[in-house]
Amino acid sequence: MDLAFTPLQDELRTQARSFLEATESPTWSQLAELGWTGASVAEQHGGAGLSFVEEAVLHEEAGRALLHAPLWSTSCLLPFLDGADQAAVAAGEASWTLALGPLVPDLDTATNVAVVGGDTIWQLQGFEREVLATNDETRPLGVVSGGEAGRPLCSSETLPALRARSLAILALEAVGVGSRALELAVEYARSREQFGRIVGTYQAVSHPLATSYVELELARSLAWWAAWCVANDDADASVAAAAAKSEAAEAAVAACERAIQAHGGIGFTWEHVLHRLYKRALGIQSWEASSAQLRAEVASHLLDG
Amino acid sequence: MDFRDTPEQAAFRAEVRTWIDDNLPAELHGHHGGAARFDGPEVRAWSRALHDGGWVGISWPAEYGGRGLSPRFQAIYLEEEARAEAPPHIGVIGLGMAGPTIISRGTEEQKARYLKPLLAAEEIWCQGFSEPGAGSDLAGVRASARLDGDRFVLDGQKVWSSYAHIADFCILVARSDPASERHAGLTYLIVDMHAPGVDVRPLTQITGEAEFNEIFLSGVEVPLENVVGEIGKGWDVAMTTLLHERGTLGFALVARLEVQLRKLVALAADRGATPTQREALAREWIQLQALRWTAYRSLSALERTGLPGPEGSILKLQWSEANQRITKLALDLLGADAQLLPGNAPYDGYWTIQQLRSRGNTIEAGTSEILRNIVAERVLGLPRSR
Question: Any idea of the CA torsion for A146, A152, A158, A159, to the nearest 10 degrees?
Fold first, then answer.
């Protein structure tokens, strides 16, 4: 058992963080050039041939940076696509989103849309898309209309595995979002003075931030457990991903709320980045299943199995 | 990154399991509802058996009677011991606090004299840090150590000392410089608990049991060779001890929580749970997984860098609150039956006692408030609040 990050993971993190800090709106082809879109695609299909535990680093960083690109929605589907489709993603020529319900994420950026029909997941063809104004501007939702099932992509038996992968990615993103909000709050609490003292000396300010740290690190442990289970097709993948997403989404939302409070008025303004982090955290909380719903699933696993 | 045991670790784990299964007397299994688990003669016998089986001092250096294995194997042992609901070695204070302090700060004579009998459960240790006026603020210690020729003479009162009623030795700090204040002028001593002037009185706690004691010291003579570290530099040595107290605690705590949760799942199945109770139970199961992997993350950092990771500082903080929630949830499932005491209660009052005992978890070994200060100041780098 070794839960430390490997040198490769550390290197990917450093690279991802500096790129995302320096690049305001990265394009899909830029991400492809860096090898991110095909991170876990086999080398024979033009990917980097890494495992999902390496790709996971990118999702945590993408969350932290509020990356506006269909990395999550594409990656959910990616391992279940055929070699040619995977190659197109790795090359930055295609990206995907799966329309599971009426609201479809990343519809403004994903080139292809997949739908479930019967026992198959199909590529949707001949449809129209409408992007809706969305609270989290970096991950807009939209609706598709018309169209028909075109090419079959894979069996819908992949859906449980696809969902575990999706939940694991959302958990990783949430940890990135929450950690960034906590860092901003700590920076502010270390410099802001009121009543002649740095506000971070007040335990009414510092202890909630300590609580955010505790919750985020626990959520990070779960998110990486889920990522490892997904990467290894482990039998615990579904329950681990549900556990991770339920904790990480709550930890991220709470960390953003505490960060807004620690900032006082400035944290409540449109010009500050905090509201963007908060809206992503709320978006993650709302997607697939809420923390409470996921806990109900975990309870079934524990009590009804 | 790998969330599985290596074959070597899995083999060690299986060996621990089999050994405990074969050797744990039936009357000691699950024997951890109350204070008696600590100090009965059968626990001393069990501790000696553990020592003879090679399960004590797993990560201690071989020259001091240990096995010299990595802390990883100590962690696996502690997990399996707790999962098997076996009582811990009677020398937990010696193994977790006194021993590591003597190894790191003691003289060669002290190491030769104290370490092996400690491992073998031949001599029991207790600690005397807290005083009535010095709890979280340990630097407020008032017990005095007056230098008199080749000895110190101790006067004062210590409190919250588990095992003191059966202990042979006590590690404590006392003020050796009467003019000193706060962290300066303290000396760290090994005190013979059988010396004249040592009086131990049990402290009855919220559960009605007495796990802890008060120690009254009146003119107790302590030879100079029992000083650990330098005279007047006891604060630094005490910090070494407290580091070990927190450092070795995590895995046993998490595994004990796993056992609590297992019992709670059984209770919920037995009594039936509402959707709200089911969700609360799921939350605790999730927290348990998070704590377990966080403990292993900290250990992995220790193995790579020689220092435990910062995430380790949150284990005790979070464990204590989780144990309080779990035991409270059990009361909720039991309803009015939870009011009944051992003797006439379902599950022999296990949950009633456990819930009351859990209120101490956020106070002992560093209050949650102090631990949040530590996270805020040492991990997040916020300014000191005091």
Answer: 0
